[in-house]
């Protein structure tokens, strides 16, 4: 098991390196001058050139990429062009809300997905089964952004029960966790139903049913 995990982690290294190269090249292919954006619209050519030297943008691409990877490995992700704060601080300030949102969405997806799948299997080919599988198909096919907008319109705008933005209380996580977990719950419901139907169709289950 440890060897498998170790091999998988080693396999991530070339993937991450390729992604880093592609992102680095893509950013440099975008139109516009980062130095001019950082310096501001009122900056003259001398100030822009000074900013370019401070950022290392005057160096060849391979040197820039080397410095970029060296800084990343040391935990230095640079400074945000928007907030002027270190990127590591920006990530840290948003990590815990993202973690709680992930946990909440997975928790409710497992709870509702498995419940719907078990109900559908026990009452197979009856209205609970049809209702559960209809909701599952809807959850898979309905886009997450559309579901999120619909939930906000109903529960935030029309009813005013839940907030739309923020992460201060558990109420802020209800709508986004439902939005993110809907597709997972739908897939899990179908998988659970199929597994339970197979189990209920086994000989020992039919024999147990005949014996009461």
UniProtKB/TrEMBL annotation:
Pfam families for this protein: BPD_transp_1 (PF00528), BPD_transp_1_N (PF19300)
Its annotated compartments are:
Cell inner membrane; Cell membrane
Q: Which InterPro entries match?
A: BPD_transp_1_N, MetI-like, MetI-like_sf
Sorted keywords for this record are: Cell inner membrane, Cell membrane, Membrane, Transmembrane, Transmembrane helix, Transport
According to its UniProt entry, the protein's GO biological process terms are: transmembrane transport
Q: Which family does it belong to?
A: Belongs to the binding-protein-dependent transport system permease family.
Q: Which chain regions cross the lipid bilayer?
A: 9-30, 99-123, 135-155, 170-191
Q: Which GO terms describe its cellular component?
A: plasma membrane
Q: How does it sit in the membrane?
A: Multi-pass membrane protein
Q: What does this protein's UniProt record list under function?
A: Part of the ABC transporter complex GsiABCD involved in glutathione import. Probably responsible for the translocation of the substrate across the membrane.
Q: What is its main location?
A: membrane
Protein name as annotated:
Glutathione transport system permease protein GsiC
Superkingdom of the organism of origin: Bacteria
Where is the ABC transmembrane type-1 domain positioned along the sequence? 95-212
């Amino acid at each position: 098991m440890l060897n498998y995990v170790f091999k998988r982690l080693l396999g991530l290294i070339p993937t991450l390196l390729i992604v880093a190269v592609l992102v680095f090249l893509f950013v440099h292919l975008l139109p516009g001058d980062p130095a001019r954006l950082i310096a501001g619209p009122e900056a003259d050519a001398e100030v822009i050139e000074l900013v370019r030297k401070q950022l290392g943008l005057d160096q060849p691409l391979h040197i820039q990429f080397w410095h970029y990877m060296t800084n990343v490995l040391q935990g230095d992700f640079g400074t945000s062009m928007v907030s002027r704060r270190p990127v590591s601080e920006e990530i840290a300030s948003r990590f815990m809300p993202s973690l709680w949102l992930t946990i909440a969405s997975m928790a409710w997806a497992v709870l509702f997905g498995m419940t719907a799948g078990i109900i559908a299997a026990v009452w197979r080919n009856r209205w609970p089964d049809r209702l559960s599988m209809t909701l599952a198909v809807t959850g898979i096919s309905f886009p997450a952004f559309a579901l999120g907008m619909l939930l906000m319109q109903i529960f935030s705008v029309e009813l005013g029960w839940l907030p739309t933005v923020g992460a201060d209380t558990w109420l802020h996580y209800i709508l986004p966790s439902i939005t993110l977990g809907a597709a997972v719950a739908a897939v899990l419901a179908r998988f659970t139903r199929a597994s339970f139907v197979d189990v209920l169709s086994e000989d020992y289950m039919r024999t147990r049913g005949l014996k009461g």
